[in-house]
């Protein structure tokens, strides 16, 4: 019989060329997508658990692929990061989100902040802060109505410069949220030195809350931590009324998930939430 290594090789090697070709194809198509304006943003409502009122929107990127239909970001964001295209996509999303927020507020949407996901390759660029400020200025969006979402793992690289960057953003009034909280390895001591507004509790915890186990203790602890740092808490992936009930009982402030809404096109969001 063949050794473990050989078997692995036999399984792995025939796939490799196809996988990299597919990736290469995706990469070149993504370059074109930017020029052809195939990328667009959808917006998922965030609501207060206490009374269900709209408190924010998260902007999420979509790609209308000419042959494949709408491609989810999980499939192309990693490719974009590796191909050096993430900055261009990030710039597009930042601009689009600021402009859309201004349009929606003018059309009667309550003046809630829009949250934009920031990739590592975007945050680390020297011109990130000026870029944000320039998008705010050209769109006319008030800084307090923009929130940037960065993941916990992004915090741990280049600690000192991240601390000063986040402080600079918040000095200008921009809000900062930590995305997917609980899935990375951020040091608790260091969390207190960061200038933040919100912790977004990862949807894996919300899912785990549905069965008996350690998730409840973990979520309780995260909420206590957030309180002591005076941070807002938002739970992601809230799909069931029971999820919302449990999170409310645990003292979580806000929620986002299919129970309330899927990410929506601007027109659909307005139709539902304009006042
Ligand atoms: P994320 O930032 O954690 O975004 C939340 C994801 O959960 C979104 O997936 C959203 O559609 C999905 N979601 C919302 N409610 C529920 C729910 O109740 N149940 C479940 N199962 N899922 C729910 P999406 O839009 O496919 O985005 C996936 C990831 O791609 C995002 O995760 C984020 O990491 C990345 N992403 C999306 N848009 C952007 C962007 O503009 N820039 C960057 N850098 N990353 C983005
Ligand atoms: Ca996010
Ligand atoms: Ca998240
Ligand atoms: Ca995520």
Automatic annotation (TrEMBL):
Keywords: Membrane, Transmembrane, Transmembrane helix. It comes from the Bacteria. Residues 23-275 form the EAL domain. This is Diguanylate cyclase. It comes from Arenimonas malthae CC-JY-1.
């Amino acid at each position: 019989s063949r050794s473990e290594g050989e078997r692995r090789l036999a399984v792995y090697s025939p796939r490799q060329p196809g996988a990299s070709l597919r990736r290469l194809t995706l990469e070149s198509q993504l370059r074109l997508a930017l020029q052809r304006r195939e990328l667009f943003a959808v917006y998922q409502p965030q609501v207060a658990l206490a009374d269900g009122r709209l408190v924010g929107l998260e902007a999420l990127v979509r790609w209308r692929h000419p042959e494949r239909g709408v491609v989810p970001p999980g499939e192309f964001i990693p490719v974009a990061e590796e191909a050096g295209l993430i900055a261009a996509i990030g710039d597009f999303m930042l601009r689009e989100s600021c402009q859309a927020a201004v349009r929606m507020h003018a059309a009667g949407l309550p003046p809630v902040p829009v949250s934009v996901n920031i990739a590592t390759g975007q945050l680390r660029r020297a011109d990130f802060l000026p870029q944000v400020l320039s998008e705010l200025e050209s769109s006319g969006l008030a800084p307090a109505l923009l929130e940037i979402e960065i993941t916990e793992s992004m915090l741990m690289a280049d600690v000192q410069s991240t601390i000063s960057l986040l402080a600079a953003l918040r000095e200008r009034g921009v809000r900062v949220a930590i995305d997917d909280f609980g899935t990375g390895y951020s040091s608790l001591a260091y969390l207190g030195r960061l200038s933040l507004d919100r912790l977004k509790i990862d949807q894996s915890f919300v899912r785990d809350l549905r069965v008996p186990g350690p998730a409840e203790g973990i979520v309780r602890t995260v909420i206590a931590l957030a309180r002591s740092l005076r941070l807002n808490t938002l739970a992601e992936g809230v799909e069931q009324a029971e999820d919302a009930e449990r999170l409310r009982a645990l003292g979580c402030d806000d929620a986002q998930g299919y129970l309330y809404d899927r990410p929506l096109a601007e027109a659909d969001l307005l139709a539902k939430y304009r006042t």
